[in-house]
């Protein structure tokens, strides 16, 4: 569903690349994880796929089609993104109902062509919340709204940029389980960016590990869980994840 070949990204002409020669192949209907420490370039890859950063070298294909640097409307019907901070990605002065209909307006579609109430129920929210504003919802509710908005156009691909890292730990598992259920029900393909190996292990079948703008290793989730990684940075990341939160 997603094919990336030799993706290289620079922030300015003549600058050193922040992403170098990244290549990925993500099968239809699967969840694929891209992990690494903050600043390694993983979210930059996501932004290039989404069209938020059109200045890249290399080739990106979705469902067999090579993407132009400037994405057309049809692209956004197939690919949507869920951001890290649900409060920052929602308009503070628009009701939830208005924001759920915004993708339809952007596509020139009738705003009554999607049952907003049914969509909210699908993400575990009461339809009565549609007339509230983002500040009147909890963090978990806001992220559910952001997921619902991403689903309005019935896309095939969701790009997930640290979708639970801004949430309380008690809410994170609920959102991850929701995303997993939606993937199975709708046949969605996910590319999940995270620094949290536990999140990736919960969601993904395969994982690419990124360091300083490059993919250093790609493994299936069983190998990751067993610690059967080969690259030194992969072992370091795995050890750091296992030791996180322990007292010494």
Automatic annotation (TrEMBL):
Name of the protein in question: Dipeptide ABC transporter ATP-binding protein DppF 3
Please give the organism: Rhizobium gallicum bv. gallicum R602sp
Q: Which PANTHER family match?
A: D,D-DIPEPTIDE TRANSPORT ATP-BINDING PROTEIN DDPF-RELATED (PTHR43776:SF7), TRANSPORT ATP-BINDING PROTEIN (PTHR43776)
Question: What PROSITE patterns does UniProt report for this protein, alphabetically?
Answer: ABC_TRANSPORTER_1, ABC_TRANSPORTER_2
Q: Write out the GO MF terms.
A: ATP binding; ATP hydrolysis activity
Q: Taxonomically, which superkingdom? A: Bacteria
Q: Known InterPro entries for this protein?
A: AAA+_ATPase (IPR003593), ABC_transp_ATP-bind (IPR050319), ABC_transporter-like_ATP-bd (IPR003439), ABC_transporter-like_CS (IPR017871), P-loop_NTPase (IPR027417)
Biological process (GO) annotations held by this record are: transmembrane transport
Q: Which UniProt keywords apply?
A: ATP-binding, Nucleotide-binding, Plasmid, Transport
């Amino acid at each position: 569903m997603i094919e990336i070949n030799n993706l290289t990204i620079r922030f300015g002409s003549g600058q050193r690349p922040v992403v170098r020669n990244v290549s990925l192949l993500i099968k239809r209907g699967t969840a694929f994880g891209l992990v690494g420490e903050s600043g390694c370039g993983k979210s930059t890859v996501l932004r290039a796929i989404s069209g938020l950063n059109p200045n890249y070298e290399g080739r990106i294909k979705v469902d067999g089609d090579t993407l132009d640097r400037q994405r057309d409307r049809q692209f956004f019907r197939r690919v949507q993104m869920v951001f890290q901070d649900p409060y920052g990605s929602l308009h503070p002065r628009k009701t939830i109902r208005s924001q759920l209909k915004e993708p339809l307006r952007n596509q020139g579609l009738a705003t009554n062509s999607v049952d907003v109430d049914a969509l909210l129920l699908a993400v575990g929210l009461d339809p009565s919340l549609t007339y509230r504003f983002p500040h009147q919802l909890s963090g978990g509710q806001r992220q559910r709204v952001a997921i619902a908005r991403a689903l309005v156009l019935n896309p095939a691909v969701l790009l997930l940029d640290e979708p639970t890292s801004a949430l309380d730990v008690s809410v994170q598992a609920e959102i991850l389980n929701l995303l997993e259920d939606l993937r199975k029900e709708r046949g969605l393909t996910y590319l999940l960016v995270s620094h949290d190996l536990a999140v990736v292990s919960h969601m993904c079948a395969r994982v690419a590990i990124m360091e300083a703008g490059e993919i250093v290793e790609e493994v299936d989730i069983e190998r990751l869980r067993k610690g059967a990684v080969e690259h030194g940075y992969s072992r370091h990341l795995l050890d750091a994840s296992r030791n996180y939160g322990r007292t010494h």
